[in-house]
Write a structure and sequence with these properties.
Elements lengths: L4 H8 L11 H9 L7 E6 L5 H9 L2 E7 L2 H13 L6 E5 L13 E7 L8 H11 E14 L5 H7 L9 H10 L3 E7 L2 H21 L6 H22 E9 L7
Parallel strand pairs: 1-2, 1-4, 2-3, 4-5
Antiparallel strand pairs: 5-7, 6-7
Length: 255
Protein backbone atom coordinates (compact mmCIF):
# COMPACT_ATOMS: atom_id res chain seq x y z
CA UNK A 1 0.00 0.00 0.00
CA UNK A 2 1.32 3.39 -0.97
CA UNK A 3 0.85 6.52 1.11
CA UNK A 4 0.15 9.98 -0.25
CA UNK A 5 3.52 11.72 -0.54
CA UNK A 6 2.30 15.04 0.82
CA UNK A 7 0.65 13.40 3.82
CA UNK A 8 3.88 11.53 4.56
CA UNK A 9 6.00 14.69 4.46
CA UNK A 10 3.36 16.61 6.39
CA UNK A 11 3.48 14.07 9.22
CA UNK A 12 7.23 13.52 9.31
CA UNK A 13 7.93 17.27 9.29
CA UNK A 14 5.40 18.13 11.99
CA UNK A 15 8.08 19.26 14.45
CA UNK A 16 10.34 21.07 11.97
CA UNK A 17 10.52 24.85 11.95
CA UNK A 18 12.37 24.86 8.64
CA UNK A 19 11.89 21.81 6.45
CA UNK A 20 15.54 21.22 5.59
CA UNK A 21 18.71 20.12 7.42
CA UNK A 22 19.91 23.62 8.26
CA UNK A 23 19.98 25.04 11.79
CA UNK A 24 18.00 28.18 12.56
CA UNK A 25 21.23 29.89 13.60
CA UNK A 26 22.78 29.27 10.19
CA UNK A 27 19.55 30.28 8.46
CA UNK A 28 19.66 33.59 10.33
CA UNK A 29 23.33 33.97 9.41
CA UNK A 30 22.39 33.68 5.76
CA UNK A 31 19.46 36.09 6.09
CA UNK A 32 21.85 38.72 7.44
CA UNK A 33 23.86 38.40 4.23
CA UNK A 34 20.90 39.22 1.98
CA UNK A 35 21.01 43.00 2.60
CA UNK A 36 17.70 43.47 0.81
CA UNK A 37 16.53 46.97 -0.05
CA UNK A 38 13.49 48.61 1.50
CA UNK A 39 10.35 47.84 -0.52
CA UNK A 40 12.17 44.89 -2.10
CA UNK A 41 10.21 41.97 -3.54
CA UNK A 42 11.04 38.32 -3.04
CA UNK A 43 9.68 34.90 -4.01
CA UNK A 44 10.30 31.51 -2.38
CA UNK A 45 9.47 28.43 -4.46
CA UNK A 46 8.64 25.34 -2.37
CA UNK A 47 8.25 27.60 0.67
CA UNK A 48 7.14 24.87 3.07
CA UNK A 49 5.80 26.43 6.25
CA UNK A 50 6.97 29.88 5.05
CA UNK A 51 9.38 30.17 7.96
CA UNK A 52 12.19 31.49 5.78
CA UNK A 53 9.85 34.04 4.18
CA UNK A 54 8.59 35.19 7.57
CA UNK A 55 12.10 35.62 8.95
CA UNK A 56 13.20 37.60 5.91
CA UNK A 57 10.12 39.81 6.14
CA UNK A 58 10.77 40.38 9.85
CA UNK A 59 14.36 41.38 9.12
CA UNK A 60 13.79 43.54 6.02
CA UNK A 61 11.02 45.87 4.78
CA UNK A 62 10.09 43.61 1.87
CA UNK A 63 7.04 41.88 0.45
CA UNK A 64 7.11 38.27 -0.61
CA UNK A 65 5.35 35.41 -2.37
CA UNK A 66 5.56 31.81 -1.23
CA UNK A 67 4.61 28.89 -3.46
CA UNK A 68 4.05 25.30 -2.35
CA UNK A 69 2.22 22.34 -3.84
CA UNK A 70 1.63 20.44 -0.60
CA UNK A 71 -1.92 20.93 0.76
CA UNK A 72 -0.59 20.21 4.25
CA UNK A 73 2.35 22.58 4.42
CA UNK A 74 0.57 25.44 2.65
CA UNK A 75 -1.96 25.43 5.49
CA UNK A 76 0.90 25.47 8.00
CA UNK A 77 2.37 28.38 6.07
CA UNK A 78 -0.90 30.32 6.21
CA UNK A 79 -1.14 29.84 9.95
CA UNK A 80 2.48 30.85 10.41
CA UNK A 81 2.05 34.04 8.38
CA UNK A 82 -1.18 34.91 10.20
CA UNK A 83 0.23 34.37 13.70
CA UNK A 84 3.08 36.72 12.91
CA UNK A 85 0.82 39.39 11.46
CA UNK A 86 2.40 39.25 8.01
CA UNK A 87 -0.66 38.63 5.82
CA UNK A 88 -0.34 42.07 4.27
CA UNK A 89 3.24 41.44 3.20
CA UNK A 90 3.39 37.74 2.33
CA UNK A 91 1.22 36.17 -0.37
CA UNK A 92 0.92 32.38 -0.43
CA UNK A 93 0.05 30.37 -3.53
CA UNK A 94 -0.96 26.70 -3.51
CA UNK A 95 0.38 25.62 -6.89
CA UNK A 96 3.17 23.88 -8.77
CA UNK A 97 6.24 26.06 -8.37
CA UNK A 98 7.44 25.01 -11.80
CA UNK A 99 4.46 26.78 -13.36
CA UNK A 100 5.00 30.05 -11.47
CA UNK A 101 5.99 33.15 -13.37
CA UNK A 102 6.33 36.61 -11.80
CA UNK A 103 3.91 39.23 -13.05
CA UNK A 104 5.07 41.04 -16.20
CA UNK A 105 7.36 43.89 -15.26
CA UNK A 106 7.92 42.57 -11.74
CA UNK A 107 11.35 43.44 -10.40
CA UNK A 108 12.32 40.78 -7.91
CA UNK A 109 15.26 41.31 -5.58
CA UNK A 110 15.47 37.68 -4.41
CA UNK A 111 14.24 34.36 -5.77
CA UNK A 112 14.83 31.26 -3.66
CA UNK A 113 14.15 27.55 -3.77
CA UNK A 114 15.44 25.72 -0.72
CA UNK A 115 15.37 21.97 -1.14
CA UNK A 116 13.01 21.76 -4.11
CA UNK A 117 15.29 21.59 -7.13
CA UNK A 118 13.26 18.68 -8.52
CA UNK A 119 10.63 21.30 -9.42
CA UNK A 120 12.93 22.71 -12.09
CA UNK A 121 14.55 19.38 -13.01
CA UNK A 122 17.71 19.75 -10.98
CA UNK A 123 20.21 22.22 -9.61
CA UNK A 124 21.11 23.84 -12.92
CA UNK A 125 17.50 24.17 -14.01
CA UNK A 126 16.63 25.76 -10.68
CA UNK A 127 19.42 28.32 -10.95
CA UNK A 128 18.34 29.14 -14.50
CA UNK A 129 14.68 29.53 -13.52
CA UNK A 130 15.38 31.68 -10.47
CA UNK A 131 17.97 33.73 -12.31
CA UNK A 132 15.34 34.52 -14.92
CA UNK A 133 12.99 35.87 -12.25
CA UNK A 134 15.27 38.43 -10.59
CA UNK A 135 16.31 41.80 -11.90
CA UNK A 136 19.97 42.58 -12.67
CA UNK A 137 21.82 42.67 -9.36
CA UNK A 138 19.15 40.48 -7.77
CA UNK A 139 19.86 37.47 -5.57
CA UNK A 140 19.36 33.77 -6.24
CA UNK A 141 19.29 31.41 -3.26
CA UNK A 142 19.12 27.63 -3.45
CA UNK A 143 19.39 24.79 -0.96
CA UNK A 144 20.87 21.64 -2.46
CA UNK A 145 22.31 18.30 -1.36
CA UNK A 146 25.82 17.26 -2.33
CA UNK A 147 27.93 14.15 -1.94
CA UNK A 148 30.53 14.44 0.79
CA UNK A 149 32.03 11.23 -0.53
CA UNK A 150 31.03 8.60 -3.07
CA UNK A 151 27.83 6.90 -1.86
CA UNK A 152 27.77 3.20 -1.06
CA UNK A 153 25.86 1.22 -3.72
CA UNK A 154 23.73 -0.33 -0.96
CA UNK A 155 22.69 3.15 0.16
CA UNK A 156 21.65 4.07 -3.37
CA UNK A 157 19.71 0.83 -3.71
CA UNK A 158 17.95 1.29 -0.36
CA UNK A 159 16.97 4.92 -1.02
CA UNK A 160 16.26 4.69 -4.74
CA UNK A 161 18.80 7.39 -5.50
CA UNK A 162 21.37 7.55 -8.26
CA UNK A 163 24.95 8.67 -7.80
CA UNK A 164 24.37 11.27 -10.51
CA UNK A 165 21.48 12.91 -8.64
CA UNK A 166 23.82 15.17 -6.70
CA UNK A 167 27.17 16.77 -7.37
CA UNK A 168 29.90 17.93 -5.03
CA UNK A 169 29.84 21.07 -2.92
CA UNK A 170 32.34 22.73 -5.25
CA UNK A 171 30.37 21.46 -8.24
CA UNK A 172 27.17 23.06 -6.98
CA UNK A 173 28.99 26.38 -6.81
CA UNK A 174 30.57 25.96 -10.22
CA UNK A 175 27.19 25.30 -11.84
CA UNK A 176 26.07 28.78 -10.80
CA UNK A 177 29.34 30.37 -11.86
CA UNK A 178 29.09 28.72 -15.29
CA UNK A 179 25.65 30.32 -15.67
CA UNK A 180 27.17 33.74 -15.09
CA UNK A 181 26.12 34.12 -11.47
CA UNK A 182 28.48 35.41 -8.78
CA UNK A 183 28.77 33.37 -5.59
CA UNK A 184 28.29 35.54 -2.51
CA UNK A 185 28.04 33.05 0.36
CA UNK A 186 27.39 29.46 1.38
CA UNK A 187 26.35 27.82 4.64
CA UNK A 188 26.79 24.07 5.11
CA UNK A 189 24.95 21.72 7.45
CA UNK A 190 27.03 19.68 9.89
CA UNK A 191 26.24 16.32 11.45
CA UNK A 192 24.31 17.89 14.32
CA UNK A 193 22.07 19.72 11.85
CA UNK A 194 21.44 16.51 9.94
CA UNK A 195 20.82 14.48 13.11
CA UNK A 196 18.17 16.92 14.24
CA UNK A 197 16.50 17.04 10.83
CA UNK A 198 16.36 13.27 10.53
CA UNK A 199 15.60 12.56 14.19
CA UNK A 200 12.58 14.85 14.25
CA UNK A 201 11.14 12.82 11.38
CA UNK A 202 11.52 9.51 13.22
CA UNK A 203 9.94 11.00 16.32
CA UNK A 204 7.00 12.47 14.43
CA UNK A 205 6.29 9.23 12.57
CA UNK A 206 6.39 7.08 15.70
CA UNK A 207 4.18 9.47 17.66
CA UNK A 208 1.65 9.75 14.84
CA UNK A 209 1.46 5.96 14.61
CA UNK A 210 0.89 5.65 18.36
CA UNK A 211 -1.80 8.35 18.32
CA UNK A 212 -3.60 7.13 15.17
CA UNK A 213 -3.59 3.30 15.33
CA UNK A 214 -6.66 3.04 13.07
CA UNK A 215 -5.15 5.07 10.21
CA UNK A 216 -4.40 2.61 7.38
CA UNK A 217 -1.44 4.78 6.38
CA UNK A 218 0.37 3.93 9.61
CA UNK A 219 1.92 0.79 8.11
CA UNK A 220 3.50 2.47 5.05
CA UNK A 221 4.38 5.51 7.17
CA UNK A 222 6.44 3.46 9.59
CA UNK A 223 7.94 1.26 6.90
CA UNK A 224 9.22 4.27 4.98
CA UNK A 225 10.26 6.32 8.01
CA UNK A 226 12.14 3.41 9.59
CA UNK A 227 13.74 2.49 6.29
CA UNK A 228 14.92 6.08 5.85
CA UNK A 229 16.22 6.07 9.42
CA UNK A 230 18.26 2.92 8.91
CA UNK A 231 19.68 4.15 5.60
CA UNK A 232 20.69 7.44 7.19
CA UNK A 233 22.37 5.81 10.17
CA UNK A 234 24.21 3.19 8.12
CA UNK A 235 25.32 5.32 5.17
CA UNK A 236 23.65 8.69 4.64
CA UNK A 237 25.15 10.44 7.65
CA UNK A 238 28.63 9.91 6.23
CA UNK A 239 28.09 10.61 2.54
CA UNK A 240 25.29 13.15 2.04
CA UNK A 241 25.76 16.86 2.66
CA UNK A 242 23.55 19.91 2.36
CA UNK A 243 24.28 23.57 1.71
CA UNK A 244 22.56 26.82 0.89
CA UNK A 245 24.12 28.83 -1.93
CA UNK A 246 23.64 32.57 -2.36
CA UNK A 247 24.37 33.94 -5.83
CA UNK A 248 23.97 37.35 -7.44
CA UNK A 249 22.86 38.08 -10.97
CA UNK A 250 25.25 40.49 -12.77
CA UNK A 251 24.03 44.06 -12.74
CA UNK A 252 24.64 44.47 -16.44
CA UNK A 253 22.60 41.43 -17.47
CA UNK A 254 19.17 41.46 -19.04
CA UNK A 255 16.14 41.04 -16.72
Amino acid sequence: MEMDMWKFFGITHTDHTVMNPMSLAKTEELIECLRLPDAGRIVDVACGKAEFLCRVAERYAVTGTGIDLSPFTIEEARRNVAVRGLEGRIELLHMDGGAYQPAPGAKLDLASCIGGSWIHHGHQGTLEALGGMVQPGGLVLVGEPFWRRAPDPDYLKRTGQDAGMWGTHAGNVQTGVDLGLSLLYTVVSNEDDWDRYEGLQWQAAERYAADHPDDPDVVPLLQTARGNRDAYLRWGRDCLGWAMYLFQKPRGSRP
